[in-house]
Amino acid sequence: xxxxEVPLQPKKKGLTRRQKRSLSRGVQYVVFVAAVIAFAVAAxxxxxxxxxxxxxxxxxxxxxxxTLALKNTVLYTVSGFVVGLVLGMVIALMRLSSVGPYxxxxxxxxxxxRGLPALLIFIFIGVAVPLAFPGTEIPGGTYGxxxxxxxxxxxxxxxxxxxxxxxAVPKGQMEAAxxxxxxxARAMISIIIPQAFRIILPPLTNELVLLFKDSSLVLFxxxxxEERELSKFGRDLASQTANSTxxxxxxxxxxxxxxxxxxxxxxxxxxxxxxxx
Length: 277
What we know:
It is found in: Cell membrane. InterPro entries: AA_ABC_transptr_permease_3TM, ArtM/GltK/GlnP/TcyL/YhdX-like, MetI-like. This protein has helices at residues 17-42, 45-52, 55-60, 64-95, 100-115, 118-132, 141-168, 171-179, 184-214, 230-241, 245-276. It is an all-alpha fold. The longest helix has 32 residues, at 64-95. It is flat, with a radius of gyration of 28 Å.
């Protein structure tokens, strides 16, 4: 029958995009929970407790772990951050300079110190500098050496962060400052750099967190008992007690600082995004 109409076949209904996302998310949760349960069942919690959670050993670490080790770690970190920030600012301005040699020197510095492991920088400060300059002492002793080593490493990263922040400030800000009679240097210091720092505060805070962890490399400089930071303090006690509880306590002390700093970074990033909107 030529005139007969062919009945339409009903369309097969598949999952919508939202349903597929929900299904995928559900599968991921199931896999995660299964992995956690498998780990919890397979782990020997008794042996872990004996090796990492001896309350008597942990109590013996106080108050020195706070008043000595954590205090030194914070001092090393803050001093290295200050040195790195000042040096990074100088290098960033050199990178933006119209003078070619300044740009080349800044670029070479950044590529070298950003490419070398921080461990090698500490060894260089502790070994190479005394050999190259006999009788020369870095001011501040171990604290000065750590500040210099951490600062040299941090400056390479901070310089690029600061340079990006300066370039993110609209060019009209400089033009407006110049039209008001500001010199280029005064406009940069009074107008551009303050705005740039509001932009780069989150990544700078992240750099502070990284320096806090890199301070553990101070042991390669050779420190006294009173100059030990958290990692060295925990390792020494772990060797004395033949137990890893001091390592766990030292790790928890790191988290006491890094977790609040991470929260501050997220808050600043959220405020920066709100300001853009």
